[in-house]
Input
Amino acid sequence: MRNIVNLNSQWAFSKTAQAVPAAIDEAWETVNLPHSWNAVDGQDGGNDYYRGTAYYAKTLNKSQLPAADRYYLEIRGANSSADVYVNGKALAHHDGGYSTWRVDITEELGENSLLAIAVDNSANETVYPQMADFTFYGGIYRDVNLICVAESHFDLDYFGGPGIAVTPTVEGANAAVKVDTYVTNMKAGQRVRCTVYDAQENVIAQAESEKTTAELTIENVHLWHGRKDPYLYCCEAELLENGEVIDSVCTRFGCRTFKIDPNNGFILNGEEYPLRGVSRHQDRLGIGNALLPEHHKEDMDLICEVGCTTIRLAHYQHDQYFYDLCDEVGMVIWAEIPYISKHMPTGRENTISQMTELVVQNYNHPSIVVWGLSNEISIGGSDEDLLENHRILNDLCHKLDKTRLTTIAAVSMCKMEDPYLQIPDVVSYNHYFGWYGGDTSMNGPWFDKFHAMHPNIPIGCSEYGCEALNWHTSDPRQGDYTEEYQSYYHEELIKQLFTRKYMWATHVWNMFDFGADARAEGGENGQNHKGLVTMDRKYKKDSFYAYKAWLSDEPFVHLCSKRYVDRVEDVTKVTVYSNQPTVELFANGVSLGVKEAADHFFYFDVPNVGRTELKAVAGDCTDESVINKVDTFNEEYRLKEEGAILNWFDIEEKPGRLSLNAKMSDVISTFRGKLIFASVMGKMLGGKKKGEKAKPMGFEVTPEMMSMMGGFTVLRLLTMAGGMMNAKFTKEDLLKLNKKLSRIKTPKKK
Output
């Protein structure tokens, strides 16, 4: 019988060793798996985390292992490339840091056998990802096992797959279940027995033959129906020799139908089932991506608390344990490979191998409905090689899996008529109108325009969000990194996206703050702070509760801005989120009235005098907070970016006149403003050859991009230009520009 021995404990580790060890060096560090060597330096900013080769080593003794004919080393995640050695002999190489792979080490395994694994997360031009807004943590950050099997066994060699594929087809009240098993070294007389169990472990169907494929029927099938009813069956395959079981594998599966309709969104088992959810990265503060089961479980509990029905598992294959959790709780999943940001002509084979591993290893999960081909891959434009790569991947997915659809996450500036949008079955866009450009009002109309242009292409929003840290204001503005602006942003996006029935899925970017060592913004370097929850999982930002109000059935009420206590204004706005029909707010025990809000967002004007204790009441739910009247603004609440040459609140603004705080759209709507903008653009795009199209950050300056730029304030656009286009503006430059703008009247709104 198959035995699995976990090898996570007591590895010798070094990232300074120069070669594969001949023996374990006592000077090496001792670590347990999962492990990442970038758990600290991959999250502290500077984009200087160690990227190179590190070595893991341990001794294996065959006599201490279960007796078996073959021994397979199973590595469930080693980022990004890895080589396996036994007693100095190279046995295998693997490219791709997020999938399971196995190595047959039988012939080299004996007493005091030195197992060494070299792991490398160096930059290269063949293995994805190489350019992306997250840290590429190095390490063996998932389990390592030794699988001990008979000579005849269910396959362990094919792209890390489980050796069994279950394909249920719902047919009226029943389900036809096809079970494909893959047997290595099957001998004459051996048989395969397939058994289906219900959730109570009752046998409901069984077949036995010399064939490796079985056809079974589940009568009166219990459907897997997302969060409402995530019912799972189990299929066990046993390899028999003379009536004795010599190997077995087991997998859970669910029976469901689904389709994605361009007008009605996601349809599950014939029922409209809106997909509203989040994206998730697999890392944590101080841990990197070396997560334990309890970390995955806590993440899932938080996602369920919000009330999500879907998760986009970005931007790579996640741990099998998390896919199992998705099956169990009923999340509908988008699974993808890290074909992201930068198309590398030399990386095609790696996209093919990573996609094959993703599909083969995850075929049995009922939670997965779409395979993601790429993310923002046309950031530098699309060419024929990029298009061909997508056609290959799209065809590969449909060859390996005829039951699911394909999708892409297109970068915001990708033109609606780009031919690569025609390749997958469904499409989503990453849009940040209201954060990186444009304003929040642009989101819904943009999707309406796409839907009108492509009425037969299902469209979704695969990323949207904005950053928030512990900064606060009563006057939230785009780019201020306050919790209040993030709340405003998500209120607006919820109302626009959730009310458009045709959108097949929406995914907030991101559920959790995550490591991005290259980032230096918001006042805390090394992280992307767009999460609804902090990276340590200790604080749920107010926007978390905005989604809970729309998506969760669990009664609650939440007072926003609890960390914003000191306030200068005489009357302050207080926001309350709840999924209850009415909310009553009390200030020092005095009712300020009862309000109704169909959009679940309740706003109260509260007199700000001295210390005020607030209490929100919604049905049986209550929440409390405190505000305090102060004479001057508490600067502890305000971000002052390190190295900033000018802050928005330091700019002189004249009533009825433009300033650096004005939107670019207002500036260029005036004749004098257009002249100023032209001179500024000249500096931002300086160095461009005559006749050459401008491509800041790899983008061609298209009407779509200009529309986004129009939503920026002048100051924010110029500040971002410093990093994006290497255009430096001094404080003196900006003050001079502000003086010019102050001579122009603010255009009247039409």
Notes: The first helix runs from residue 293 to 306. The first strand starts at residue 3 and ends at 6.
